[in-house]
Design goal:
Structural class: mainly alpha
Order of helices and strands: HHHHHH
Number of strands: 0
Number of domains: 2
Strand content: under 5%
Length: 106
């Protein structure tokens, strides 16, 4: 194996494992309720079924999207620990942030 092949193998291996390392690292950090709401608003949880921007506001206003949905999406994306869903104060704070989002949008 020559130097170029070895370097290419190293780049491929590093690229292949980088997302896994990032997911583990971000899974250990705790987001605030404001950050969770902000990420949801910007559409960061679209893959988990939470739309962003106006569609999020509409879903909140109609009751189709609640705090637990947004928290579950954050968990599914690897940005929040499962314990957040079991923390009543955290859920309540996300709920308040979502309500504020809708209130300020009107």
């Amino acid at each position: 194996m020559n130097v170029a092949t070895a370097a290419l193998s190293l780049v491929i291996a590093t690229t292949a494992f980088a997302p896994v390392a990032e997911a583990v690292e971000t899974n250990n950090s705790q987001l605030t309720p404001f950050q969770v709401t902000s990420l949801a608003y910007r559409g960061s949880f679209g893959e988990a079924g939470i739309p962003g921007y106006g569609a999020l506001e509409s879903g909140i206003a109609t009751g189709d999207i609640v705090a637990e949905d947004v928290i579950e999406a954050a968990i599914a994306s690897g940005r929040l620990s499962v314990e957040a869903l079991e923390d009543g104060a955290f859920v309540s704070s996300v709920d308040n942030q979502l309500d504020n989002l809708v209130d300020h949008g009107n």
